[in-house]
Amino acid sequence: MARKRYAMVIDMRRCIGCHACTVACKAEMAVPLEVNATWLKIIEKGAYPDTRRFYLPRMCNNCTDAICARNCPTQATYKRDDGIVVVDQHRCIGCKYCIASCPYDTRFINPLKNIVQKCFFCQHRVDAGLEPACVESCPTRAMVFGDRNDNKSEISQLLASNATTVLKKEMETNPNVYYIAADETVMSNVEKGINYRTEGTITKLRL
Amino acid sequence: MKNFMSSITRRDFLKLGAASTAMLAIESQLHPLAQAMELMDGGRSVNRTSGLPRSSLPSTCTQCPAGCGIVGYVEESKLVKIGGNPKHISNQGALCARGQAGINALYDPDRVLTPLKRVGARGENRWSEIDWRQAYDEVAKAMQPLRSQPGQFVYMTEDLGNDTLGRRFTSAFGSANALGAAGIYDANKLVATQLTWGAAGDMPDVSRTKYMLVFGANPLESHPQFVGFARRLIDGMQQNQAKVVTFDVRLTNTSTRANELYYVNPGTYALVALAMANVIMREGLHNAAFIDQWTNVRSQDLAAHLAQFTPERAEAESGVSAAVIRRVATEFATTSPATTISDGIVSTHGNGTQSERAVMLLNIITGNIDNRGGLCMPRQYNLPDSGPVPPAPAPTALSNPVDLPLALQQSIDRSWQLIRDRQYRVGLLMTHGYNPVYSNPDGGSVHDTLVDETLVPMHVAVSPFMTETAALADIVLPETTYLEGWDLEVRSSPELVPFVALRQPVVPPLGSSKPFFDIATDLSGRIGGGMEQYFAFKSVQDYLTARIQSVPGLVAAGGLDYLKQHGVWYDPKSKPNYGSFSGGGFATPSGKIEVSSARLKERGFSALPTYQPIPAFGSLSQDELVLTIYDTAIQTDAKTANSMWLDEILHNNPVWLHPDTASQLGIKDGDKVKVVRTARTGQGVTPVDNSQLDPRERSLQTTAFITEGIHPRVVAMANGVGHSGFGRIAQGQKINPDDVERPLRDPNTDLVWWGKKDGTGANAKLIVPAMPEPVGGGQAWGDVVVTVGKVTE
How many domains does chain A have? Predict the structure, then answer.
């Protein structure tokens, strides 16, 4: 059987900004309060009455050319054969090089366990033949996960038939999280140093 | 190891197509440990470390009214995850933030796990733990003397329609006062639809429509069938290329998705709808055959009535341009099928019932009634109570308020007014899963009523949590959470195929908490005097089995055992039965759609759908603003704020202000502001003069959120936060896990960060007076006029 290459497509035409993915990740990965491995960026654009709100579900891009894996001095961070970027907690020495080198600010120290954590595309679920928890929970099926190397998979067909974007394409990390019809503004300004900040349900990011 | 799910899911069915022979061959490949062609999208969960499957049990969520199918995943008798049930026809395996956070409620460190008796004065929130025997004795001792005047027993519950046991208990005691809280939610919509087409509620067939006209509704954040409806609405937009046009006072997750969104002056939805109806009739775009055959009006009479609602008048009062009204009306009438969506604010103004009828009219005159892709009637199994059913007790002023004869349920606002004003004498009040001190308008007055022992001599709260209302009880009976109890759960199906679902314990009751069935059964036995005969079931499962006998298909499929295994049942061969009225007509007095309602006319209201301006709104002074309190997909009113995963996302509610308004008021983003209700609130709309009804709380403090996404004359605040009780998590306080007993202990409670940083918001409903809308009796939340000013310290 051909090697798998897992990826996610998030169709922003279907996303309703409901945070089901945010909570699915908290529950599935036992992510403590204060930090998030999956979260929702929300911005508002335009002047009344032509105002619109744009969302962006954010998580680790599980990059094909993962800077974090390259920079890890102990090879604790490595890429699995199927493309998922994981952390071997037994090899991790907590030096935080990976956190500093991630262009997407998706890594963090778990405040309860004092280990590095991020989205692993729910590797334990994928290994059991299940979709990641966020994908399963999504009320509007905005998230699709699967094997890019299988031409018949839903994700391959989506990628083949839609224009997609990735975050910080210029970094040449080749992210494996693709967005369909994402707003340019919400895709730009991938902020460093924030993992989670909201004001009510509206993120205070004004552009 | 329980693994109730078959190894093939709905999405797999879709992917595999209709080739049923291929299906059997492929099914084996979908076994989790086989190299599956596609991943499964639901119904199973594995341990993160071992990869071993978790044991699972299907049940039903009640974190919001939708009643989605869930699966509880358990390890070592602890609930570790809640997912969606892929077999459920409504949510199809998906689950919103609230549903997944139910685990926080189950293990809320401040859960009440032992019966409590108050120590000291009522409301001091000091308690002594007692055993169930003593608790039952105390309640029975207080209830027994009321048997001769059973109407003095008052039972209040959040959702009476789904609290069959509570109604049974109250009737068995001899009281008609089983009171539901629908009046503070969607009562006016229910009355409007009941009067018009003989069924309470509606279900727009959004996945199959081509055009959606949304009036004030926000179904992508808040809907009675949230996940199931939102999923189908997006399907309608993306797969069916349906166009969406919204009218609202603020930017919502729904209006931002719309092809066109228009801001409308508050309370004028009906005028826009009636002007569109006028255009459709004048241009001859109406479905005359449908109107003649299925309504009780003639086209020309209706056209004559509608002539007063010109697009130009609508533009002047609503702010929506006449050109837009003409064009959108034309598109709506010439695109088939089309439907309106109107939950929420349309029916919760003082003109709500008629406004709802005005919006329905657009569907009626274009023949978009109960058709594929149109505005459909609700499909829901009605499971009658079973066994020896208590006789219906004599009505009371609470159960049938004389001044609101059209109300389908009681007006809970009016009930509290009658009790407070000593017009109705209460002997014992039992509240069940209902927190009026938080949820009701003028909660301060509800608080004062509950504290006054001359008004409420005894208050028994049946609740898993120490809510603001339970804190004012004499006895607290610790009910289990929804995850530890049993019931049948039926809802209006967004697929238009009715279903029966089961709520069953996914974990055993924690502490000495008891499911409501046990409490009602034990208590009726202790009270005696004949009421115990109505609770003579061997077990709750016997009781539920008796209730599902009215659904033969379910009985044939295995009855309760089927539900225990699958969580939900619907007729697998069933398809939406569009045009359900074509055989026997509508369940109205005339058998037709009553565009003209004799019942409304009898009561002195307009027989035809009409627009009644909210008096204060037409003459707002420079500093007067209209307050709108909105629901989100993160918090459900009084229900969910003890879930830390939800609070981390939505924990406060700054007031939204338009930049021009803010600049006039000298307010900057983030400023501390005071929101003060003015006496023009509710003026002249309700039969009682509500300007006399001053809520105890007239103002609140919050911060300003300046946004381009709101009408300049409107300010908005989120519902669901601002608790003064309901445990420490709901109030944004850290809890040291070492002080918490297992199994409630969770190290995350020590990480609660938002209380200190952002605060936990304000309950905006405290400054809203009780204002039953005159026709439907539902609370007119939208009629609040406020001023907003900067707080200088």
Answer: 1
Taking the C-alpha atoms of residue B17 and residue B23, their distance in angstroms, rounded to an integer, is: 8
Query: Could you give the count of Cα atoms lying within 13 Å of A89 in the half-sphere of its Cβ?
Result: 10
Mean pLDDT of all residues in chain B?
A: 91
Q: For residue B150, how far is the Cα from the chain centroid?
A: 30
pLDDT single digits (tens) B452-500: 999 999 999 999 999 999 999 999 999 999 999 999 999 999 999 999 9
B82 touches chain A (CB under 8 A): yes
Give the pLDDT band (50/70/90) at residue B409. low
Query: All domains of chain B, ordered by start, with CATH?
Result: 10-106 (2.20.25.90), 116-185+386-569 (3.40.50.740), 203-375 (3.40.228.10), 615-790 (2.40.40.20)
Cβ–Cβ < 8 Å for B646, B677:
no
Residue A138 belongs to a domain = yes
Q: Does some domain include residue A202?
A: no
pLDDT per residue over B146-180, tens digit each? Answer: 999 999 999 999 988 889 999 999 999 999 999 99
Closest CA to B645 of B739, B738, B746: B746
Q: CA dist A134 to B340, B360, B650, Å?
A: 31, 37, 19
The answer to whether B39 contacts A133, with C-beta atoms less than 8 Å apart, is no
Contact between chains at B48 and A30 (C-beta distance less than 8 A): yes
pLDDT higher than 50, residue B45: yes
In-domain check, residue A120: yes
- Within 8 A of A16 by CB-CB distance, chain B residues are 220-221, 230, 234, 253-254, 257, 633
Q: Quick: pLDDT tens for B210-263.
A: 999 999 999 999 999 999 999 999 999 999 999 999 999 999 999 999 999 999
H helices, E strands: number in chain A: 7, 10
pLDDT at B410: 66
Q: What is the Cβ-side half-sphere exposure of residue B68, based on CA atoms within 13 angstroms?
A: 32
The answer on pLDDT for B35 being more than 60 is no
Q: Residue A5 above 80 pLDDT?
A: yes
Do the chains contact at B747 and A126, CB–CB below 8 Å? no
B747/A32 CB distance under 8 A: yes
Q: Give the range of the structural domain holding residue A114, as residue numbers without chain letter.
A: 6-187
Terminal-residue alpha carbon distance, chain A = 48
Which residue among B97, B659, B752 places its CB closest to the CB of A20? B97
A16, A18, A28: residue with CB nearest B81? A28
Q: Which residue of A has its CA nearest to B320?
A: A49
- Residue in chain A lying closest to B256 (CA): A52
Q: Is the dihedral of CA A106, A108, A112, A115 positive or negative?
A: positive
Q: Does B37 touch chain A (CB under 8 A)?
A: yes
Interface contact B557, partner A, CB < 8 A: no
Note whether residue A173 is domain-resident.
yes
> What is the three-class DSSP state of B74?
strand
Amino acid identity, residue B96? C
Q: State the pairing for strand pair B487-489/B153-157.
A: unpaired
Cis peptide, bond prior to residue B743, ω within 30 of zero: yes
Query: Per the CB < 8 Å rule, is B751 touching A24?
Result: no
Q: Which two tokens stand for residue B309?
A: 């609602």
> Closest Cα of chain B to A108: distance in Å?
15
- B234: contact with A, CB 8 A cutoff: yes
pLDDT digits (tens, 9 = 90+) for B649-667: 999 999 999 999 999 999 9
Closest partner CB to A145 (pick from B39, B221, B649): B39
- Closest partner residue to A130 (CB to CB) among B44, B748, B758 is B44
Neighbours of B132 (CB within 10 A): 17
Full-model pTM: 0.94
Provide the β-strand partners of residue B460.
B430, B475
| C-beta atoms of A130 and B710 within 8 A | no
Q: What is the ipTM of this complex?
A: 0.95
Give the pLDDT of residue A207. 28
